[in-house]
Write a structure and sequence with these properties.
The chain is 11% helix and 26% strand. Strand 1 and strand 2 form a beta hairpin. It is of the alpha+beta class and 119 residues long. The structure holds FE2/S2 (inorganic) cluster (FES). FE2/S2 (inorganic) cluster binds next to loops. Belongs to the 2Fe2S plant-type ferredoxin family.
Length: 119
């Protein structure tokens, strides 16, 4: 159940939505709802999670997220260290909905050979 103070985040182009509490990073809020954004370090240095903010306002948990001034001006953000401060629209084409994945294949069935002469 989303917190009453949470913000709504829409992922584009998929149209998936999740709720982001103001004290939780966008990456963790998405993961809690089964939406996997690309990520690695989770501390704002590797840039694996980089996504473009199409609408809304965020705030960072760290002072110097690994983005240049130009990237920030263009709307690029790092969801692993960013928290919502309003409803958001985030362009994240590589996001995966973990609930939509097909089930893993069944393990192979191994049948032991019958000894000669048995039925
Ligand atoms: S996961 Fe490394 S910068 Fe976001």
């Amino acid at each position: 159940m989303p917190d009453a103070a949470s913000f709504s985040v829409e992922l584009r182009p998929q149209g998936w939505r999740f709720e982001a509490p103001p004290d939780q990073t966008l990456l963790l809020a998405a993961l809690d709802m089964g939406l996997r954004l690309p990520h690695s370090c989770r501390n704002g240095t590797c840039r694996a999670c980089i996504a473009k903010l199409a609408a809304g306002t965020i705030d960072y948990r760290i002072e110097w997220p690994g983005l240049s001034r130009e990237e920030k001006a263009e709307g690029w953000i790092l969801p692993c260290v960013a928290c919502a401060r309003s409803d958001l629209v985030l362009e994240a084409p590589a996001a995966i909905n973990l609930f939509d994945l097909p089930p893993p294949p069944a393990p192979p069935v191994i049948v032991a050979p019958r000894p000669p002469g048995s039925t």
